[in-house]
């Protein structure tokens, strides 16, 4: 994302609750955290809520001065992972299909919208069948758009282990999706 020295300086400013620093962190990381969460959660409104919760917790941690983030990216991704897990623990059942009605009405017919939502739901269910490590790697790589080296650093595994987890996850997803057809 950014140079480590720049990030430390920015984090130092954020610890004083400097509004410009907080806005810069939000602007720099919000899209990636949003994509990461959207890879794990199917409902777009829930994705927005959970992404906002990550940044709310970031500010709360800065205010408490206990358990403060030592680096921005890993803290935000770790918190995003916990927020998603908490979300699923709180839910007793799946919503059948979440369709963004305005998008459906504006961009495609109802049948296409339902087909797309159904395919997305099936993919999401297949992803939920992967191991936690596989889900995390896929979410960081494809949801967060992070390179393998950064994923390895975030999850504290070697680059080779990340590549293997990714390959096995993609293979398992392909098998599950073929079985569903």
Report on the architecture of this protein.
- This protein has 181 residues and is an all-alpha fold.
- It has a domain at 1-93: Orthogonal Bundle (Rna Polymerase Sigma Factor, Chain: A), CATH 1.10.1740.
- It contains nine helices and no strands.
- The chain starts with a helix and ends with a helix.
Find the count of extended strands (DSSP E, 2+ residues): 0
Structural class, please? mainly alpha
Shape: globular
CATH superfamily of the domain at 1-93: RNA polymerase sigma factor, region 2, helix turn helix motif
Percent of residues in beta strands:
under 5%
What is the correct CATH architecture of the domain at 1-93?
Orthogonal Bundle
* Main pleated sheet: none
Q: Give the averaged pLDDT, no decimals.
A: 83
How far apart the termini lie comes to 39 Å
Q: What level of helicity do the residues show?
A: over 70%
What value does the Rg take, in angstroms?
A: 18 Å
Q: Please work out how many helical segments DSSP would assign.
A: 9
- Which residues form runs of ≥5 with pLDDT under 50? 93-102
Q: What is the ordering of alpha helices and beta strands?
A: HHHHHHHHH
CATH topology assignment of the domain at 1-93: Rna Polymerase Sigma Factor, Chain: A
Broad CATH class of the domain at 1-93: Mainly Alpha
Briefly say what this structure is:
Helix content is 78%, strand content 0%.
Task: Reconstruct the topology from this structure.
Elements lengths: L3 H12 L3 H22 L3 H21 L7 H19 L10 H7 L2 H19 L3 H12 L4 H8 L3 H22 L1
